[in-house]
Specification:
Uridine Diphospho-n-acetylenolpyruvylglucosamine Reductase, domain 2; 16 helices; globular; Cytochrome p450; 2 domains; about 425 residues; alpha+beta; three-stranded antiparallel β-sheet; five-stranded mixed β-sheet
C-alpha cells in the first residue's frame, strides 16, 4: 500500500518529533541518570524507535532507541552527515552541550573527503601503537596506584585508580608530559559535564593541545601525536589540536567509565563476584556485557540530516541533532534477548564509517587495569550497597559519581 501524501507530495507525518507539541524528555537531569533504562522504555512505548528529547533546555534532538534504525542511520552518511555547522548557526554560543557537539576539523565532526582525510591519519597513528608495549605500560602504571591505597583497606576507585591510570596511559601513548596533561584533563572534564564551565574547559583544552603539538613538532617521538604530525595528509596546528581533542575525549572519560562500570558488574554479579581468579566468566566477558548493557558513552554518534527525511514513519527535520542511544539500542527488545559472551554486535563502538578505530586499545587498557587491580586485591567488595551508588547527570555518558570499595589490608606490592 502506498504512503498517503499531503498536498505537494509529502508523506503524512506520523507522530513526528518535528511537530511534537508535548514536552520533550530532558536527558540531562539527575532523574534520567538514576534510571536511564526506565526512561528508554518509556520513550520506546510512547514514540517507537525515534524519540523527541532535549539535550539541554531549549536544545531539541531526536534520540534513536531502535537497534535496526540506528544501523540504518550510522551506515548512511550521505543522508546523515556528522557535520553540525548548519545546526550550530541556530544555537547560542553559551549552550553547555555545544563543546561536545560543535564542528571541529576532525573525523567525528566531518563528512565526505574531509572525514576520509582525518580518519586516515588517525587510523595510521593508532595502528602504530605497540600493543605489547601498551600492556606493559598499563602494568607499570597500575601497581604504584594500587600501592597508594592497599594498606588502608579501602579506596574510591574512580579518583584513586581508574582516572589516574587511564589518564597516565593515554598521556604515555600521546607523548604528553604531565604538566600539559593536567590542563587537558581539567578541560575535558568540564566539557563532559556539560555545565556552565564547558566553554572555559573548551578553551583550556585547546591551549594545552596546541602546546603539545608545538612540543612534538620540535621534538617528535614514537607516539600517536608525532605519528599524526608526520602523516602525509599534512595536518596543520588547528587540525592537530582537534585530532587530539578526539583522542583525549574518547580516551579519558569513556575509558574510565568502561573500567568502573565493569568493576561494578564484577563486584555485584555472582557470575563474577567472590573468587575472581576462579570465576567462570572472564574480564573480557564482563567488558562485553557492560558494552551491551551500560556502555560508557550511552548516547552519542550525532548526525545532522541534510534535509527533512522520513524514517520509521517519522519526519526528522534538517540540521537538527539525531543522536544514537547505544545503551537503548543495545537493549532494544525488538532484536530479542541476546547472550553477551563473545558477542560483538553492540553499538558501543558505533558502526559504519565512524566506527571507533581504537577499540583494540580500549579493550587492552580496560582489561589490564581490571586484572591488575583484582589480582592484587582479590577479596575486594563494595563499601556501599549498589543501589545507593549515584550516577552523574549528563546527556552523553554513563558514569558513576564514585565507586567505594573495601578489602583486607595488604602490604605494598613489588613494583
Amino acid at each position: 500500500m502506498n504512503e498517503p501524501l499531503l498536498p505537494g507530495g509529502w508523506p503524512v507525518v506520523h507522530g513526528s518529533p518535528v511537530g511534537n507539541d508535548g514536552p520533550r524528555m530532558l536527558i540531562n537531569t539527575p532523574e534520567f541518570a538514576a534510571d536511564p533504562h526506565g526512561a528508554y522504555r518509556d520513550l520506546r512505548r510512547r514514540f517507537g524507535s525515534l524519540a523527541p528529547v532535549e539535550l539541554d533546555p531549549g536544545v531539541p534532538a531526536t534520540l534513536v532507541i531502535g537497534y535496526r534504525t540506528a544501523l540504518r542511520i550510522l551506515n548512511d552518511p550521505e543522508h546523515f552527515p556528522a557535520d553540525p555547522r548548519q545546526w550550530q548557526k541556530t544555537i547560542p554560543g553559551e549552550t553547555p552541550v555545544l563543546p561536545m557537539l560543535e564542528w571541529r576539523p576532525n573525523a567525528i565532526r566531518s563528512a565526505g573527503n574531509a572525514h576520509t582525510r582525518y580518519r586516515q591519519a588517525n587510523v595510521a597513528a593508532i595502528n602504530a601503537v605497540d600493543l605489547h608495549g601498551l600492556h606493559t605500560t598499563v602494568e607499570r602504571l597500575a601497581m604504584p596506584l594500587v600501592n597508594t591505597f592497599c594498606e588502608s583497606g579501602a579506596a574510591e576507585l574512580i579518583s584513586e585508580y581508574a582516572f589516574p591510570l587511564t589518564f597516565a596511559v593515554l598521556n604515555t601513548m600521546l607523548g604528553c608530559p604531565p604538566e600539559i596533561g593536567q590542563d587537558v584533563a581539567a578541560g575535558m572534564a568540564m566539557i563532559f559535564e556539560g555545565g556552565v564551565n564547558a566553554d572555559k574547559g573548551n578553551a583550556m583544552l585547546g591551549e594545552a593541545l596546541l602546546e603539545l603539538t608545538a612540543l612534538k613538532r620540535a621534538d617528535p617521538g614514537d607516539d600517536i601525536t608525532s605519528h599524526l604530525i608526520s602523516h602525509p595528509v599534512g595536518l596543520d596546528d588547528l587540525e592537530m589540536v582537534h585530532q587530539l581533542v578526539t583522542l583525549y575525549g574518547a580516551g579519558i572519560e569513556p575509558q574510565q567509565n568502561l573500567i568502573v562500570n565493569t568493576l561494578l558488574l564484577m563486584l555485584t554479579d555472582d557470575r563474577f563476584a567472590g573468587d575472581f581468579l576462579g570465576g567462570a566468566l572472564s574480564t573480557r566477558d564482563a567488558l562485553d556485557e557492560v558494552l551491551f548493557t551500560d556502555p560508557p558513552m550511552a548516547n552519542y554518534c550525532v548526525t545532522y540530516p541534510r534535509q527533512p527525511i522520513l524514517i520509521d514513519d517519522v519526519w526528522l527535520p534538517a540540521h537538527q541533532p539525531v543522536m544514537i542511544s547505544m545503551s537503548a539500542c543495545n537493549n532494544d527488545p525488538a532484536v530479542g534477548t541476546r547472550e553477551f559472551t563473545d558477542n560483538r554486535s553492540h553499538l558501543a563502538w558505533s558502526a559504519g564509517p565512524h566506527t571507533c578505530p581504537a577499540k583494540s586499545l580500549a579493550y587492552l587498557i580496560a582489561q589490564g587495569a581490571i586484572d591488575q587491580l583484582l589480582d592484587a586485591l582479590p577479596d575486594m567488595r563494595l563499601a556501599a550497597p549498589a543501589d545507593q551508588l549515584s550516577w552523574r547527570p549528563g546527556p552523553f555518558h554513563r558514569a558513576l559519581v564514585s565507586l567505594p570499595v573495601m578489602f583486607p589490608k595488604s602490604p605494598p606490592l613489588h613494583v
